[in-house]
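== Folding the chain ==

***
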Amino acid sequence: MPHNIPVSRALKGVKYEIRGELSRMAQQLERQGYEIIRLNIGNPGRFGFRTPETMRLAMIENLGAAEPYAHQKGIFPAREAVVMQQQSRGVMDVNAEQVFIGNGVSELIDLTLRAMINPGDEVLVPSPDYPLWTAAVILNGGKAVHYPCPVEKGFEPDLAAIEARITRHTRAIVVINPNNPTGAVYSRQTLEALAELAERHGLVMMADEIYDQVLYDEVEFVPMATLVKDTLCISYSGLSKAYRACGYRVGWAVLNGTVDRAEQYLHSLDLLASLRLCSNVPGQWAVQTALGGYQSIRDLVSPGGRLYEARQAAVEAVAESRYLHMVTPKGAMYAFPQVDADALPAFDDQQFALDLLQKQHILIVPGSSFNFDSNRFFRTTLLPEPPLLKQVFQRMEEVLDDYR
C-alpha cells in the first residue's frame, strides 16, 4: 500500500509567494484561455525587453569553449571583468580569486549562507525583504531576524532597531540596495552607519545589489564594498536585471574587506562551488561584453526611457487614486503602493490580490509576502508599457471601488 512521502521539516517557515498559489491559479486561468497580466516577477524578457545584442554574439562566438566544465569559481574573463567593474567603483581590495560566478544571485545567496551558518545562528534580514533571503537562512539551519525599514523613513533601515536585534548568535546583516520590493535606494549616511555597525559587532555584511544600475532621477548608488573595511563584505550582482538576461542565470558574489581573516570561509565557498561543478558556462561568456560595453540600461531609466516612463505612469496613477499612497521608487523595477486605512479600513492584501486576479486577470504580489507585518501593501512590476500600466491601475481602482 503506497505511503505519503513526508515533507522535510527544514521547509517549515519557507515561503516564496511570488511564484506561489496565486501564480498557480493564474496558470489555470491561462489554460482556460484567459490572458493574464503577470506583474508578480521582475522578468523583463516577458515584456519585450531584450538582452543587448553584443552579449548574445559573445555567447555564440564562444559556444565551442562553453562545452566543457569551467573552473568552479567561473571562467577567468568573467571574473576579471567583475574585478574591473569593482575597481572602477573604488573597490580596490579585490582580485579574481575573490569572485564567484553562480547560477544567478539566488544560488550564490544559498552558497554563501551555507558556508557560514550553523544551526541557531541568526542573520539580520530587512522587512520587507526579498523572500529568498529569509528562505535561504532557514533552509541552511539559521534564524532570519527581521529588522524594520519603515514607510515613514522612505523604507530606509531603522538603525536603532537593527542594533537592538543583535545578539551573540548574530552572524551577518543583509542589505538589499536598491531595494526589492520597495524601490528605495539607501543614502550614503545610512550605508555608512550600517557598515560601522557591522564592523563594530564583527558581522559579515551581505549586500544584495542586483539592481545597482536601475536608478531614477540621477539618484546616487553607493556600493557597500566601498564603505566596509574592518569586516568581511560580500556583494552580489548579475546579468538578470540591468542586462535583461534573467534566463542566462549568471550572477556573481565578490568578497572584500577582511578577506585575510576569512581564508577558511573562502575555502568552504570553493568546496561548495566545486560540489555543483560549475555554473552555466555559455552565459558566463556574456559577462565581459556586458560589463565592458555600452550600458543601455541608462537609456531605459532616463526621462523618455521605457522604465522611467513606466515608473512615472505608476506614480501618476497612484496620485490620482482615491485609495493609494506610495513612496516613489528611486531604483529597481517595482512599485510598492499602500492602501489608505481611512478609505478602506478592512482592506486585506491577500484578498485584494485574489480578487484582482479573478476579476481583472492581473497578477500582483501581496505586500505581506515579503515578510512584512502590514497587510495594506502590494508589489507590482514596472515592466509593462506605460499605457498598459496605466490601464492596470485603473482596473485596480475598479476593484477598490467595489470594496468601498
User: Anything to note?
Assistant: The radius of gyration is 21 Å. The chain has two domains: 9-50+299-403, 53-292. The mean pLDDT is 96.
